[in-house]
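Hi P.,

Sorry for the delay on this. The queue was packed all week, but I finally got your sequence through. Input first:
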Amino acid sequence: MLEFEQLKSDNDLKEVIKAAFDADLSVSGAWGYTQELSTIIESSEVPVKQLEHMLASMRTYIEMNMTLPKEERYGSINLNEIEREQKQVDGLLYDKVTYEITAMKEETYTAFINAYKEGLGKEDFDITEHFDQRKKATITRSEVYWFEVHQVL
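Then the structure:
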């Protein structure tokens, strides 16, 4: 399985999210790699599951795109929740969420999009083959994200 470097956090999670995504979120803590390094959701105007997905997507995009050299970046990054459990530890409530992440190299994705745009509607364009090749170029990984949620429930 491909490994991506874990993001470091110096209690600046809120500032990093603001700078990278121009989003003001009421969060603190770390990037959620373990229970001890969980992302603390302090409040939320959207359903918690949606905010968790957004935060997981942000972490993943930073890991797989923003912090890598251009030729190593991934695009078409998608997360789908595959498992969820809630744990209570020392009076605190945590969501431990596992996501399946799919992506492909950004340059490859751009080439597929261009080929699709150029080929669509032409007789010699094999759309089935096109999507088979896209599927082969897609990587899949599974990642766990920890969220401390007792303040918002």
